[in-house]
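Lecture 7, part B: from sequences to assemblies.

Below are the input chains for today's worked example.
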Amino acid sequence: MSDLEWFFREEKRILDMPEEPDEDYLARVYGYRPSEDATVAHERGTSEAPIKDADRPRELNVDMSESLNEVQKVTVPPEDLHINQGMTTKRKSSTERTVDPSVRHSKKRRLSPEHKKGSASVTLAHATGSASDNPDSHELHQTSVGPPTDAAGPQSPVARPPIQQPVVKETTITSPAPDKGKAREHEANHVDPPLHPYSKSTGRIIATNNDKQPDVPSPQQASDDATRTTHARYSSHAKRTVKSKVIEVSTANPGPAAAPSSSSVTTPAAPGPSSSKVSGARAKKAEEPKPKTDALKKEKSGKKKRELITPREYAQRLQDNLSEVAATRKSRASPYLRGKRIYYHGGDMQYASEETRKRMDYIIRYGGTVVPTYDPEVITHIVTTEKPSAPAFLRATGLRSLRDIPNHIPTVTWSWVIRAPRRVIPETPVEKGGESTDVADNNKGDKTEQIEDSSSEPTADYHLIVHAAFKDRLDAGMPPPPSNKGRSKPQQSATSAASGPSRPTPQEPKSGRDGSDTSIISEFTVDRVESKQSAILDFDDSSFLGKLAAGPNGAGVPGRATVTDNPKSSLNNKSDSTPEVDSLAPFYNQARAEREAEDLRSGLSSEEESAKEIGNGGKRAATHAVSKKRVRRFVHVFCRAILTLIQGFLCDSKAEEHTACANQDVVNKLQELRELHKAKLSKEDTWKVYTYDKAIRALRSYPTRIRCYEEALAIPGIGDKTAQKITEILQTGDLRRIGYEKTEDIEAINMFQGIYGVGRQTAYKWYANGCRTLDDVRARKGGIKLSTCQEIGLEYYADFLTVPYESRGAALLYYTGDDIFNRSLRLKANKMGYSLNQRGLYQGIVRNPSNKLEKLNEGTIIASETEEEILRILGVPWQEPHERIRG
DNA sequence: GGGCAGTACTG
DNA sequence: CAGTAC
DNA sequence: GCCC
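Predicted structure of the full complex, as C-alpha cells:
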C-alpha cells in the first residue's frame, strides 16, 4: 500500500514537473543542479571522440577463413554456435528447470542457430570481418561512454534529472566500464526506494538522432496474444540429441501494444492502456470541479440528445420501470446480479453520463437493483468507477469517512461487476478432486446448485476482492482488533450465515432467492477471519487439501465440518465474546493434518514450525482475542504450508503446460515488468528479475485464481511487494509501475537484448553509442562491435519476429532448409506452377514473360501453415530439418 | 544484512 | 581473472 | 525483490 501511495505521489510529482525543468526546480526536487552535470559531461565529452561510421572499415577485409570455419561448424550443430555463450551444458539449473520456458524465452529469440545455418554461412563472413576490425573501439567506447559513477547511473533519480541537451546525452547513459561496476553498485545503494519509477523518465537518455523507432515489435509485447509460438522439436545431427527449436512468429497484426512509445520526457507514462489510464484518472479529477461543462460535453457527443438527469434520478427511473425492464431482461441475460442492491457511484455526479446510464442499465438487466441513494440499510453493494475519488464519494454519500461504510457492504469497482459472471465459469474445474475426497453431501449439493446456478452466484474470490474500490477500505471486514463489538453486525448477516451452514463459502443462494445474496455479504461481514476461512476452504474444495487430508479422512472432513459449524456457533452461541476462537479452530485441525502429511513427505521445512508456532499462538490468542496481525500471519503461514505440500519441489513434477493459467493476466503483467527490469544494469534490477522469475513461475503453477493479498503473499516467492502488485492487477487490471518503467530507452535496450547473444551490458552499450534501432545496429552506428554470435542473432532477429503466424510452416521450411534445399524446393514449386517463399506456397502467380521477376498478380496462397502441407503439395516426402541439408 | 546456480567463452 | 551471457 |  505504501508502495502504491508512493507511486501515486511520484506520479503526481512528475506530472507536475515542468516540461523543461529549470535549474531551480531540479535543485528543489533533486537537490541537483544541471550545471554540475554539464561540467561532468563536458569533461567526459573530451574523450568521447565519436567514432564515425565512415571511418571504420566495415567490409570483410579480414580473415574470413576463420569466420568461415566458424560458420561451417555452425552449419552443423547449434552448440558450436554458442561458442561464446555458456549455455552449452545446460540451459538452466535444476531448480530453474524448464518449468516454464516461456519465462526465459519470453523474448523473441532463441533461434537455435541450427536452422539457419545454411543461409547463415552466407551472411556470416561479412559480419565477422567487420567485428574484428576495431579492436580498440571497444575500449574507446567504454571509457567515453561510461560516466563517472558518481554522476549517476541510469538508476539514480537523484543524480539524473531530465536533461535534454545533446551534449549530456551520451553521458547520461551509463555503460559501466567493468572496473566501475563496484562503484555503480555502491551508488545503486542510495537509490532510495528500491526502484525509482521515474529514474528512467527523468533521467533517461534522449536519442541523439531522432530516428524514430521503426515498427519493430518490442520483444515483450509480442510475447503475448500477438504472438504464437511454435515449439517444434527436431532431432538434429547424429550425436546431438534432440534440440528444441523455438520459432516465435508474430501474427500479422502486431497489435496496438506495438505502437512506439511517445518520446516526451515529461510524460513518463508509456503508451497503451497504462498511459490512457493515467490520463483518464487525471481527467476525471479535473472533471470534478466543473462537472456541468463536462456533462454537457458528454451529452453533446452522445448521438441523441438526452435530457439532463442526475444519476440519482436515472436510477430512480430505472427503479420505477423495473418491471418492464425486467421483462426485457428475462429473455437475454442471466440475472446474476439478482438480489444485489447496488449503489453506484462514479462519473459525473451532477448529470448521469452515458457511461453511468449504461452501467445502471446493465445492473438492471442482469437482475440487480440500482439504489438511487446511499442507504446502508438498503444497499448490499457499492459499485464505483475504477478509480473513484474518495472525497467525491464522501460528498455524494454524505459520509464523513470511508470508514463509515459498514463492513458488510462491499465496495467494488465496475470491473468487478462485469467480471463476476465470467469468473464463475472457469473456476469450476478444480472442484472435482474435492468431491472425490470430500464427503460433505451438502457440499456437493451446493456445488451442483452452484453450477446450475453459476450465472447467479459468483465464486468465493468475488468476495475477497470485495473492498477493492477504495484502497483505504481494503481492511474492511478484517478481524477487528481485539474489540469485540464489530460483531454485532446487521441482523441479516447472522441469519443468513446461519442459514447456510452447508458451506462457509458464500456460494449458496439456498435460502431466499432474493435475500440470498445477503448471505454473501454477511459471510464477508462476520469478520475477516471467516472470510479467510472461505478462501482456504475453497482450497479445500479445490481438492488438494482434501486429497492431502485423505489419510486422516475422518479428519479431512471434520476440518470442514468444524469450519462450517463454526461461524454458526460463533454467531449463535456467543453473541459477542471471542468468536474468533472458533473461527481459528478449523485451521488447527487442518494445520495438523498438513503437518503430518508434510512429515510424511519429508518435505519438511521451516514452514511447519512456524505454522505450529503460529497455531499455538492462535490458540493462545483465542483465549483472549486474535489480533489482526496474528490472523494474517496465520493465514499466510498456513497457505504457504499448504502450498509447500501440494507443490513439492519443482523438480518433482514435469513441466506443466504453460498455457492457460488461472492468473494469466497477472503473469503477463509481471512478465512485462520483469522485462523492463531486465533492461537495466544495476545489480538490484538483476535480482529483481531473478525474483520476478520466481514469482511468475510460482504464479503460473498456482492452480486457482488469486483472490486477495494474503493469498498471493502466501505463495513462496511472492512477497509483500509482488503481492501488492498482484492485488493491483486484480483490482485494476493494470499495473501502473509498468507505465512508469516503460520508457524509450528501456524498450530499445530490450529490443537489443532480443538479439541472441546480446545481454543487458551489450544492449546498453549500443544504446549509449547511439543505436536506437536494429538498423542502427546493422549499420554499426556508434562504432559498436558485434560478436560472431550476435551477428547471427541480429541477422535473424527480424525474421523471427516478423513471421506471421499463418506463415509459420513456410517459414520453418525456409529456415530449416539450407540454400540448396530451398532453391530446389522453390524450383520444383515453380515448375509445378506454384511459387514458394517464406510466407507460403502460392498458386496462380502470373509473371511477366519478359521479366520473370515481375509478378503480374499476387496469386493465391494455398499453403503456409504447416510444413507438411507444403511438402505434400509439392510432392516432396517429409524430411526432418537435419535432412534438409543439401549443400 | 547478506545471499540469491553454475558454467563457459572472450578479451 | 573480470566481465558477460545463458 | 524474496527469504532466512
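Note for the exam: Residues 82, 84-88, 90-92, 104, 178-179, 181, 757-762, 789 of chain A lie near DNA strand C (CB under 10 Å from a C1'). Keep this in mind when comparing with the next example.
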